[in-house]
Amino acid sequence: MRTRAVLTDEDIEKMAEAAVAHARANQWNVTIAVVDEGGHALFLRRLDGAGAASAEMALGKARTAAMGRRESKVYEEVIKQGRTAFLSAPLTAMLEGGVPIVVNGDVIGAVGVSGVKSDQDAAVARAGIAALGIDQG
C-alpha cells in the first residue's frame, strides 16, 4: 500500500487567494473552481462581473482536468484536429482552462477557470496551483 497527497482546506484557501489575486490584477472577471481527484467541488467563486455560465464552465473544466488527468486543453486540441468522435467522451468542458494538480505523479485535484480568453483562464488556474509551491512533474 502507498500513501498519496490530498488537498487540505489550507491548500484550497491558498490556491483560491492566489487565483483571485491574479484575476483581479489583470481585471479579469472569472469564475474559479477547485475539485478533488474525483471531480467533486471543493471551491467555487464567481467574481463580480463574471457571467453566470462561467460558473458551470469553470467547474466543468476542473472536472475534466481532474478526471482526465491532463489539462482540459489537450481534449480541445484533439477535437480541433478532427477527432470529433471524442465529443462523446464523458467529460463536460473540453476547453482550455482546466489544470490538474499533480503531486509525485498523482493527480490530486484540479483548478478550472472560465470568463476570459482560454489561455488567460489557464493562467489564473496555474497561478492558483503555484501558490502551493509544489513541483507539478
Please explain how this structure is put together.
The protein is α+β, with helices and mostly antiparallel strands and 137 residues long. It has a four-stranded antiparallel sheet. The chain has helices at residues 9-25, 53-68, 72-80, 118-130, and strands spanning 31-36, 41-46, 98-103, 106-114. The longest helix is centred in the first third of the chain and has 17 residues, at 9-25. The two termini are 22 Å apart. The chain has a single domain, classed as 2-Layer Sandwich (Beta-Lactamase), CATH 3.30.450.150. β3 (98-103) and β4 form a beta hairpin.
Number of strands: 4
CATH-assigned fold name = Beta-Lactamase
pLDDT averaged residue by residue: 93
Detail the poorly predicted runs: none
Rg calc: 14 Å
Indicate the CATH architecture. Answer: 2-Layer Sandwich
Major beta sheet summary: 4 strands, antiparallel
CATH C-level class is Alpha Beta
Tell me the series of helices and strands, N- to C-terminal. Answer: HEEHHEEH
| Count of individual helical segments | 4
Structural class: alpha+beta
User: What proportion of the residues form beta strands (DSSP E)?
Assistant: 15-25%
The neighbouring-strand order within the major sheet is: 2-1-4-3
Note the gap between the termini: 22 Å
Total individual domains: 1
Name of the CATH superfamily: Haem-degrading domain
Q: Shape, please?
A: globular
